[in-house]
Every structure is written in C-alpha cells, then in structure tokens.
User: Which sequence fits this backbone?
C-alpha cells in the first residue's frame, strides 16, 4: 500500500491512506408454484402426473432448453405434446434427474 505525504503547513505533514471496504450481499430466489402446471396422462409413468412447460422445466432442473429437448428425444425424461404443439414435461421424470453436471457429462 503506497502512502503519500502532503504538506499542509510549513513543517507539518499528513499521511493519506487508502482503505478497502468489502460488502457481502446475498441473493434469494423465490420460485412460486406456477399455475401453468397441468394434470395429464404420462404414457411412460402410466399414471396421471403434473406436467410443466419448457420454461418451468428449465427452472426445476437448471438445464437449458436444448438439453431438456435432447433428453426428451433420448427418452430420458417424459413428455407429451398438446394438440396445439406445446411440449409438456412430466414432473416425475424431471425430479429423477440428479444434477445438471451428471446430465451434461453423459
């Protein structure tokens, strides 16, 4: 740390010091239950399950949309498509995923 001296009056000096202040903050992310959950038949589970759209599936798993669609194409997670072409993912199969790193390393 460099110390500079300035003369204010004849014969007196004052030290100028630099201080580093660190502020620690925390962030809390609250995810509320979406009203976009739909109860629908899951062919793979052979049961009625909660199904969610891609956006909520991303939040639940921490994976990207692309990764989720790849897992669905590989039949590693369950999904269904609605009459209007919307893809819904089975909550049961999403909850069975371990961690994003496990999926990405496959």
Assistant:
């Amino acid at each position: 740390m460099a110390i500079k001296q300035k003369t204010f009056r004849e014969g007196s000096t004052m030290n100028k010091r630099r201080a580093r202040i660190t502020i620690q903050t925390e962030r809390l992310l609250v995810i509320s239950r979406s009203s976009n959950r739909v109860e629908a038949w899951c062919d793979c589970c052979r049961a009625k399950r909660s199904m969610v759209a891609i956006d909520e599936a991303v939040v639940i798993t921490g994976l990207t949309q692309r990764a989720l669609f790849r897992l669905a194409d590989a039949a590693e997670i369950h999904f269904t498509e609605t009459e209007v072409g919307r893809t819904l993912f089975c909550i049961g199969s999403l909850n069975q995923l371990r961690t994003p790193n496990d999926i990405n390393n496959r």
Q: What stands out?
A: The two ends are 49 Å apart (CA to CA). Residues 35-106 form a domain with the Multidrug-efflux Transporter Regulator; Chain: A; Domain 2 fold (CATH 1.10.1660). The CA atoms of residues 54 and 65 lie 7 Å apart.
